[in-house]
# Entry
Amino acid sequence: MTPREALAFVKGNGVVLESARGPVPTLAEFIAGEQIRGSWWGHRKAPQIFRCSRALRDSDDILVCRLVEGKVTYVHRRLWPALIKLQDRFDSKRLTAIREVHTAQGKHETHTTLFPNWVPQNVETEAASLTIAQAAKMFPLKLGAKRKH
# Structure
């Protein structure tokens, strides 16, 4: 699995969990090709999982937030207008963008951008043109419905 393939996986599914289990696909298990017991760090494909997850976290086409069950979630840019239109259905804290930053001291810090401060103007404009029904039809997160890989 390459970072480009990981991006295609997220784009195709729209909403993907980084490593937790939930009602949407999980990147770590998709890369592993199996259910992971315990931490993915111990899996033989951990280097691939790490490389792909970091690439997704750095992508301008991916919103990294805690949308699904408070777990690290990737939302592809193609769904941002629908997410914005449906914002009232979600706790705004779960729409906060999270970014991992590497400091000069070699540490990792998590920086957050509150919703809606991360939303580009063109996405707001596109969201405004959608009806709630159109947005709901676009958005793949149907509670309890897990999408296949």
Q: What stands out?
A: The beta strands are 15-17, 62-65, 73-76, 97-102, 108-113.
